[in-house]
Amino acid sequence: MIPKFIKMDNQNSNYTEQIVTQVKNAWAAQNKNVTAFFNKYDEQAYLKEIAPNKNRAIYLLGHLTAVNDNLLPLLGLGEKLYPELEETFLKSADKAVAEIPTVADLKQKWETVNTTLSNHFDKMSVNDWLDRHTAVSAEDFKVEPTRNKLNVLMGRAIHQSYHAGQLNLLDA
């Protein structure tokens, strides 16, 4: 729901739609950037740390996949596709879990999660994006209407950008 304090005439509606499109495009661009990175290396590169005593690329692939998978329930779009990734890639540090999925398996999950999200995003209206996400109560949302789905997506685009920067250290 668009907050009541915003008067939605045609001009404001057009601006709001443009902003929603820009945030969705930023998220998609970051996904494309991360995907391109993960497609340019052989499997051995994924086992290297991005810097001494830091995460390996395989861990970042799993982490980003798990974070994006969490968007499904957070945005009210359904259940996680791969809840098994949470313990290894969100609750544990790299190398804390002995067995992790293969690079090929994680790449497939990355692709499936992002395709699923993109399909949902294409169907969402501006009002859907400006509505609250599932981690905020209706009462809190009335007080802070910026705690909406669009804000979550913007945060996830920034998060992906941060990790893409880390991944670029493999090239250094």
Q: What can you tell me about this protein's structure?
A:
- The protein is built from 7 helices and no strands.
- The chain has helices at residues 10-39, 57-74, 85-89, 103-123, 126-129, 138-143, 149-167.
- The chain is an all-alpha fold and 172 residues long.
- 60% of the residues lie in helices and 0% in strands.
- Helix 1 runs antiparallel to helix 4 (103-123).
- It has a domain at 52-171: Four Helix Bundle (Hemerythrin (Met), subunit A) (Up-down Bundle), CATH 1.20.120.450.
What does this entry show, briefly?
The chain is mainly alpha-helical. It has a domain at 52-171: Four Helix Bundle (Hemerythrin (Met), subunit A) (Up-down Bundle).
Q: How much helix is in the residues?
A: 55-70%
Number of strands: 0
**Count of helical segments?**
7
**The top level CATH class name of the domain at 52-171:** Mainly Alpha
- Low-confidence parts lasting 5 or more residues at pLDDT below 50? none
Elements, N to C (H/E): HHHHHHH
The span between the termini is 46 Å
**What percentage of the residues does DSSP assign to strands (E)?**
under 5%
Envelope shape:
globular
CATH-derived architecture of the domain at 52-171: Up-down Bundle
Estimate the mean pLDDT confidence: 91
Structural class computed from helices and strand pairing: mainly alpha
CATH topology of the domain at 52-171: Four Helix Bundle (Hemerythrin (Met), subunit A)
Oligomer: single chain
CATH superfamily of the domain at 52-171: dinb family like domain
